[in-house]
Each structure stands twice: as structure tokens, then as C-alpha cells.
């Protein structure tokens, strides 16, 4: 059985925008003031998000003439997931930053979010945006070994300094 799409107002933008449990944003039909101080009817429409340089979907929302970028996954979590412990971050359970469905998201601590998932990729410490095709002279495993070697040298240096 397929889940039905449910819409809820976006916190701070009630009567302007709604977010769905699928991670879609819509602008609510309303009267808006144009440049010549007349009002026009802005019809309801699904907004198209953009992908930032780290691979997350975001959307620009406007209120009182001021625009602010918001992450889609945070909007979904705020609207649909209780956060009784006031946890600060939202984790993508399947590690797909573009999968913003409510069942794929969870509130978590910074530490949990940083340690979640593919530890090997995170140890390498090199982020390449998904839309960039980069050729490297090193394989992933070679980068991993280089990073570990650097960490060992750093630890040895720190130990040497602390004994002086």
C-alpha cells in the first residue's frame, strides 16, 4: 500500500508555503502585491528545489519581501517528525541526500550524524559534489591509506610535542 502525500504548513511561512511528507514544497494560492502596488492572484504551484554544492536540496522561501534558503530535509523533519529531545540535526537514513521522504529522515545529534553510514568515505576527508566528475590519480583505497598514514604521523608528532 502506497503512502498518501500529506501537506503541512511550513513553520514560519504559514499561509505562504506547505511541505509534503514526500519532500515537495508548494506555494499556496494567495494575493501578492506587485511592484506597482496592485495585487495579483498567485496560483498554487509546486516549487522546484535546487541542489547545493554539498548535494542537499534547498528552496528559497519569501516572506515580507525577504528571501531565505531552507533545506528540504529540515522542513520535512520540522513538519512531520516529533523532536522531544530537541536534537539539532536531521539524518538521511539511506544516506541519499536527495531522498527527503519523511520515512527516510530522523532527528539526531551532530556526533551521530557525523558517524552515521560509510565511515571509510568520511575518513578520506575529501568531498566531491555529486555533479562534479573528477579524475583522481588515486583510488579510494589509496586515498584511505594516505589519510591513515597522515593521521599516524600527526599522532606521532603530537605525542613527541607533548613529551617536551
Automatic annotation (TrEMBL):
Which Pfam families has this protein been placed in? HNH_3, NUMOD4
Q: Which UniProt keywords apply?
A: Endonuclease, Hydrolase, Nuclease
**Which InterPro entries does the protein's record reference?**
His-Me_finger_sf (IPR044925), HNH_nuc (IPR003615), NUMOD4 (IPR010902)
Boundaries of every HNH nuclease domain copy: 66-114
Keyword Zinc appears in the UniProt entry: no
**Superkingdom:** Bacteria
Its recorded name reads Endonuclease
| Source organism of the structure | Lacrimispora amygdalina
